[in-house]
């Protein structure tokens, strides 16, 4: 079954933005208005499932495309595997984050031949809309912030933020980087989306290098000390693709 039809691929900035908007609206509907139906369809007992948003505003939970390489970038595989191992709200937030990434990848796949000004204009138009994650978590978009990615933070820390210390003991080895709170204040938890704070226990995924509250992924400081390589729920679910 062909999941994605691209017989008349959008070519101009306006056409790609329209395509992006339709796909985004579909995914937002799946994760909000139709969330009970979407949740029920993501049965962990089924094979790798993906959430697709189509340009016409329809969403679909189905298997990934069989073509290799696929006609379009593929959304996150196996979203159903993590469903029952996480709080429902956290799982929906995780799906939303992956969906935002997929939407951008499709838009810039179509715009791969654009020049710099056209790419900038496309991103500016897209950036005027709240992300799927912001809609699903009811977070207000922040403006005029440069953002700090998890990779930059990883250069200054091991995979366990606060070096395994509990919330009641914020004086940690991170004192060597006294301005870490300021430097990484815009690093967000990959589950709940809240900002980094050295007062709380955080852990980084050794695969995707994103950071998470220990409480959001159910990892305590003591448990983390015995983990040689930590994989977040999303990266762990990808094992089902093997």
UniProtKB/TrEMBL annotation:
GO terms for biological process: chromatin organization; regulation of DNA-templated transcription. It is found in: Nucleus. Pfam families: Alfin, PHD. The keyword Transcription applies. InterPro entries: Alfin, Alfin_N, PHD_AL_plant, Zinc_finger_PHD-type_CS, Znf_FYVE_PHD, Znf_PHD, Znf_PHD-finger, Znf_RING/FYVE/PHD. GO terms for cellular component: nucleus. It comes from the Eukaryota. Residues 140-184 are annotated as: Disordered. SMART domains: PHD (SM00249). Its main location: nucleus. Keywords: Chromatin regulator, Metal-binding, Nucleus, Transcription, Transcription regulation, Zinc, Zinc-finger. One of its GO terms (molecular function) is zinc ion binding. Residues 186-238 form the PHD-type domain. SUPFAM superfamilies: FYVE/PHD zinc finger (SSF57903). Interacts with H3K4me3 and to a lesser extent with H3K4me2. Belongs to the Alfin family. Histone-binding component that specifically recognizes H3 tails trimethylated on 'Lys-4' (H3K4me3), which mark transcription start sites of virtually all active genes. This is PHD finger protein ALFIN-LIKE. It comes from Phoenix dactylifera.
């Amino acid at each position: 079954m062909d999941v994605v039809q691209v017989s008349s691929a959008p070519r101009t900035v306006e056409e790609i933005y329209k395509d992006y908007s339709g796909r985004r609206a579909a995914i937002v509907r799946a994760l909000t208005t139709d969330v009970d139906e979407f949740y029920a369809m993501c049965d962990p007992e089924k094979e790798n499932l993906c959430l697709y948003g189509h340009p016409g505003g329809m969403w679909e939970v189905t298997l990934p495309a069989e073509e290799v390489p696929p006609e379009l970038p593929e959304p996150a595989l196996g979203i159903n595997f993590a469903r029952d191992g996480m709080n429902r709200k956290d799982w929906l937030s995780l799906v939303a984050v992956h969906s935002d990434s997929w939407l951008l990848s499709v838009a810039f796949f179509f715009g791969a031949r654009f020049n710099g000004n056209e790419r900038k204009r496309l991103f500016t138009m897209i950036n005027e809309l709240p992300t799927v994650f912001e809609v699903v978590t009811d977070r207000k978009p922040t403006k005029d912030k440069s953002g700090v990615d998890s990779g930059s933070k990883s250069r200054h820390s091991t995979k366990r933020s606060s070096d395994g210390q509990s919330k009641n003991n914020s004086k940690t080895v991170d004192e060597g980087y006294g301005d870490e709170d300021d430097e990484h204040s815009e690093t967000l938890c990959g589950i709940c989306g809240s900002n980094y704070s050295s007062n709380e226990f955080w852990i980084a995924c050794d695969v995707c290098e994103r950071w998470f509250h220990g409480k959001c992924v159910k990892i305590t400081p003591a448990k983390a000390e015995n983990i040689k390589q930590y994989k977040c729920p999303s990266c762990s679910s990808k094992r089902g693709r093997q």
